[in-house]
Amino acid sequence: MKSMSVIVVAGLLSFSALAAGDAAVGKNKSVSCVACHGAAGKVSIPMYPNLAGQNAMYLEQALLSYKKGERSGGQAEVMRAYVLALSDTDIADLAAYYASLQP
């Protein structure tokens, strides 16, 4: 049972590292997101998701999945085109920014 606890703790630590972005820097990087996801992460076109207040770890994993081509359907190819040039730090910063906003 001890080894299971170590695995769980290690997993939590790796998730914490993922969500370590800088929200202020992410705000500056969010300019290209506004067209679809709206100012302050709130959409005006219902086919796109609101990002404001979304969980940072979820956003980071979603963006990384788009970048790796692991997501398909819907707007996946459009999203992939946007995130291909983003570094892991850029992605963490964007996730932190949108997570910091009020839904």
From TrEMBL:
Family matches, as InterPro entries: Cyt_c-like_dom, Cyt_c-like_dom_sf, Cytochrome_c_Oxidase_Subunit
Q: Which residues form a coiled coil?
A: none
Q: Origin, by domain of life?
A: Bacteria
UniProt keyword list? Electron transport, Heme, Iron, Metal-binding, Signal, Transport
GO MF terms, alphabetically ordered: electron transfer activity; heme binding; metal ion binding
Show which residues constitute the signal peptide: 1-19
Q: What SUPFAM superfamilies does the record tag this protein with?
A: Cytochrome c (SSF46626)
User: Which part of the chain is the Cytochrome c domain?
Assistant: 21-102
* Classification via PROSITE patterns: CYTC (PS51007)
Mention any Pfam family matching this sequence. Cytochrom_C
Name of this chain's protein:
Cytochrome C554
